[in-house]
Amino acid sequence: MWSCISTAKFLVLVNGVPVGFFSSSKGLRQGDALSPYLFVMGMEVLSVLIRRIVEGGFISGCNIWRGSGSVANISHILFADDIIVFCEAKKEDMTYLSWILCWFEAISGLRINLAKSEVILVGEVEEILEMAVELGCKVDQLPSAYLGLPLGAPNKASSVWDGVEERVRWKLAL
Question: Which spans are transmembrane here (predicted)?
Fold first, then answer.
């Protein structure tokens, strides 16, 4: 991958006229057109690691009932640069998840910012502080917000969406 980035040549247009080729000396930067593709490749690795520990029975996902009566098991959801992992509120599950995150960091060279991460409780959970310490993250509870949207709140209550509506109106006004 580094070879693809380091051997690329760039051409700049100055007043619409091409001006010489030059090599990249800094690698990728935020906003680079290649960055999203590299991120997706990295997240695919994390997704496979999580899928394997679920298939091995080390952690369980969340069972979702479909209209036909069948059950779908969801262990994780990837969105933009975030991931939501669903598992039981057990210390063993947190330990396995912690190992997966460490392995991912070692494999990919990426660093997961656990200071920005949260364990969100669903229902009654015992020993939550021990589990949060196991992962090294904060504890939150429902209702909460994820990417600015209400999570776990009654979605039919219009007051839940007031903040979202206000942000959209503000952006449209720009």
Answer: none
- pLDDT tens for each residue of 72-105: 888 898 876 788 888 888 888 888 888 998 998 8
Q: What's the gap between Cα 38 and its chain centre?
A: 14
* Residue 35 backbone phi and psi in degrees, to 5: -55, -45
Strands 138-141 and 118-121: parallel
- Cα angle 64, 117, 163 (rounded to 5 degrees) comes to 75
Residue 84's closest CA among 145, 30, 154? Answer: 145
CA distance 14 to 35: 25
**With the CA atoms of 43, 111, 88 and 134 taken in that order, what torsion angle do they form, in degrees rounded to the nearest 10?**
170
Q: Is 152 left (phi over 0), alpha (psi -120 to 50) or beta?
A: left
Output the pTM of the full model: 0.66
pLDDT tens digits, one per residue of 121-151: 777 778 878 877 877 888 887 777 777 777 7
In sequence order, what are the residues at sequence separation of 6 or more whose Cβ sits closer than 8 angstroms to the Cβ of residue 79?
A: 147
Strands of 24-136, DSSP E = 62-65, 71-74, 76-79, 82-85, 118-121
